[in-house]
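Researcher: Let's run the pair from yesterday's discussion. Sequence first, then tokens, for each.
Model: Starting with the first of the pair.
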Amino acid sequence: MRKISVLLAGLFLASCNFGDSGNSDPAPDPLPVSIPSDIMGMVHAGDFELLETMGVVWMLSDFSWDGFEPAPPTYREAMGGKSAGDRWKPADGVTPAILANLDHHWNENYKVDYLAGVASHPSTRAFAVMAYDTPWIHPEGSSDNHVSAEMLPLYREQVKTMVKKLYRDVGVWNIWNEPDNRPRFWTGTDEEFYALTKTAALAIREVETELNVEHPDENIHLTITGGAFFSGASPEFIRGMFEYDKGIIKTTLDAVAFHPYSETPQSVTKAYNDFKAIVTPYGFGDKIWVTEEGYPSGGYYPWTITEAELPEKVVKTLTLLATQGAGHIFWYHLFDSKKYADATPQEKADAEKWFGLVVNSKVDGKYVLKQGANAYALWAKYIPGYTYRPTLPKRSGLSADIQSFYFEKDDGKRTLILWNDKDASLGVTVILPGNSWLLHDPAEREFESADGTNRLAPPAGIDSGGKAVITLSKTPLILTWNAGADPLPPRISAP
């Protein structure tokens, strides 16, 4: 997410009405949801050790045409009044003859350090956003976030070359970013964006074919995502991408990317579900990557919050999106631009600088964590790889304001997330089977130690049967335990 001009609407998750009479069949129980083990992503992150501590798998970074090919190509041989070595200019056009006579000057060191860092940390993977244009394709010599149809052959060349050079180091190739956020990220027409997406996707598939010919024993598949729509995108614009040129784009993409920014976790989830309803007819309802989501703790956006609210927003947003089927969720983003106290008034007003979970400064050699960093790390530790059981836990006498989300893992590990939607404290009784019960507070600022020696304790007053009374507020609590030989699910009730 970057600066936006679209004000979002819709604050609460829509309710559903199953059937219209007492004679209708009851709705079937919702199915379990498997949470991918690699669900966690981070946008514009740069400290690999910190990312590993926080449980991040996917690291999103821009892979720009301008960075990969910073200067225009030159003519290999004299032609049409051009001498060998002359720089190509937009006025020259891009005919097949000219394209065949151009030498490109790729930046051979592009992203080398970044990708080496990813490769040196086996738990992390690179997610490349292929954006944006480059100044030298425009007559005025400045970028305008637009690639015209005439310039697509040059765009195609850089896509093919970049992918072929870096394919072993990049896990996913994403085409463009927030084309509906105009004019910040796109100034062309809808049709021109669709044409660019088609060009890039087909170019990547062409590279994939070439690589499998060169390496027949490897069965190489290059994963492509497209769209990267902001939550203000119109349904017509989204549908247009899938329907363009007889649906060719939907046959080349593996997934579609979406940024469901909104004011609350509930309205974020509504934006996600609305988008899901649009893309499901095209076969992408279960192929959505949320490649940006977050809340600034400063500046002026409709969803700006206080830092103290971050733990609540982080856990609720991740939980609601994941249980609705979001396969991957990237937080926007890791670092604030600087210490808030050191910022100028103009910087403090710029919400883009304050989306981080960590302050971009160190004290005694350690980064200063914002409230919310530990919440993210806890969720990443106790949810990915689990299965969400929507019909559990068993509830008795509880207000509908008490929200409960229960997750199981094949190895016997269990997680229960609880919160109270009301802005008040309310006690509930929990009965946890198994053993090794632990209570985790996302509002704590510091990370839990790897061996669980700091701040980890059984719920206060829990007895030998796993029964305890817990006070819930708007900020979620996370309970974990081992099922052991007891396969029963947890129970929660009024105290």
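Model: Moving on to the second of the pair.
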Amino acid sequence: MKISSALTLLCLLPIAVGTVGANDEAATAAQGGLAGKTIVIMGDSSTTANMWPEAMQRLYLPASCRVVNTAVGGTHWEHIAGQWFRAKAALGDQRPDIVIITTGGNKFPDPASSYDDIIALCENASLQPVSPETYAVLNLRKITKEAPAVDLYLVSNFYAGSFPAKNRTRRAYRTQLTALCDYFSCNLIDLTSQSNIRGYLEKDPTQRLFTNDGVHAATDAGKERIARVIYGTLLRNYPPLKEPAPSQADTPAR
């Protein structure tokens, strides 16, 4: 399928939009740093609405936080342009405060993909200069140009140990994501080293706790683990608002 045809197909797929959280007014006040923010989530099957984004909305995000999720299973970096187009259509004149992108993983299980293929997803093997021809660079440049104030996060996925033969390419890809984050001055959420989901255990069906297949964190425990790590990163950049100290007029007389 040609890229243009694939993007046309992506534009016709449903968009997950929500403001749902486990969150009354008190919880919203406690999470004040994210209250009222708009988050766009893009990526592949690890990021679709029924994965960690659902758990993050249900468990953590304030009710006033709007989430637009255009992730589609099986996609690569070249499809992010179509997902961004759909997110903008859903938002209208509004621009997102936060964009989170998880993609690239569908290249790894492919026996035909090589170390050079993974490098080519982002930039050249020397890391500098960032190549303007690659899909990742072109799409990130487009997003940051159209939403220059956006707080951008790239996610390195957790399942390195699930495909031991591909660990070299996975490490190379994480290095490339780090270089992209340096170039675009954005945030890396490194689930490869910080998720506490161990791929070498999850690849064994008798050991699985966080995944249903060794790759997708589709169990409740897996969704909640990933959501907690990603939300924790957001919370460090958007800490809860500090409650004002009571005035003397509010202090009861003794």
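Researcher: Give me one sentence on the second I can quote.
Model: The chain has one domain: 3-241.
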